[in-house]
Design brief:
With 188 residues, this protein is an alpha+beta fold. The protein has one domain (2-179). The protein has helices spanning 31-34, 62-70, 100-103, 159-167, and strands spanning 2-8, 50-52, 58-61, 76-80, 87-92, 95-96, 106-111, 116-121, 138-147, 152-157, 174-179. The strands form two sheets. Strands 1, 6, 7, 8, 9, 10 and 11 form a seven-stranded mixed β-sheet that branches. Strands 2-3-5-4 form a four-stranded antiparallel β-sheet. The chain is flat and about 45 Å long.
Amino acid sequence: MLLGYTISEPDNGCYMFTDFPLTECARYSNIYSLNVVNPNFVVPKKKLNITCTYDGFTIVNEKFKQFCEAAQYQGLEFVALPKSPGFYWFKIHNVLAYDTAARMTRFINYNAACNGYEEIIGATPACLTIKQPLQEGFYRSDVCFGSFAGKSPLYFVGETTKQKLRTAGFKEIHFAKIFDTYNWQKQE
């Protein structure tokens, strides 16, 4: 059964954390735990409504923000980027449990002093613990994937939200289907 879609966007060719001081433990953290933007970050691709940095920050423009506000989606935050007026770090606070066992996600190089992993890999195809179609709105995984300080969650939408994004003209968003089970998983 189709549960919804992961959403992804084109990269914008840069890093949020370039020339930005981070602690040694940041490499075992993720962008949501660090919860900081580089005050000197400048969005390079201003013609796109939604992009992503190489280190996992989803960046949206005013048009995307207004779309979400007009739809009255809950659990969203738009963190202003000081050097790029009209652009925001798009944060989602609606969290869904990710099924790391079913996906066989790998947690690499745990650091007890920093309480985190250097890398978490095995994000796609997305495996959620819920087995019902997603309601309207935006959601994110409880696990952040990637390497070092650039670990970030997967973002999800249901069918209705996908259609609204398409109708609104956000063509740069790529949607990948999320199923309740996959052929490589054991069938119950």
